[in-house]
Design goal:
- By secondary structure, this protein is mostly helical.
- It has one domain.
- Helix content is about 80%, strand content about 0%.
- It is built from 4 helices and no strands.
- It is elongated, with a radius of gyration of 14 Å.
Length: about 90
């Protein structure tokens, strides 16, 4: 779960950085390295979300929520809060 949380945060930040290029806040010369990094993080996010979902016994709806959050700006914050609650719930 810890690896997924780290990848989730990094993937969300990389998504925001790509959007920053789109809006002109960051130079277009960084598109290639940002895109490659985001692509790798996105694939890791998907793989780890499936693994965590299986280990935690999430319903398909929960996993779909986590999946959809990966394509919505700033939704990684909601995923982090959700994962934090999941950890607290499993530890009690």
């Amino acid at each position: 779960m810890k690896q997924f949380r780290v990848v989730s945060l990094l993937e969300g930040i990389s998504f925001l950085l790509i959007l920053s290029v789109t809006f002109g806040f960051i130079s277009r010369e960084y598109v290639s390295p940002l895109g490659a990094t985001h692509g790798i993080l996105f694939i890791l996010y998907m793989l780890l979300s499936l693994s965590v979902s299986h280990k935690q016994g999430w319903s398909t709806v929960k996993w779909l929520g986590v999946f959809i959050a990966s394509v919505v700006p700033f939704a990684f914050i909601a995923v982090e809060l959700f994962l934090k609650r999941e950890i607290e719930y499993t530890n009690t």
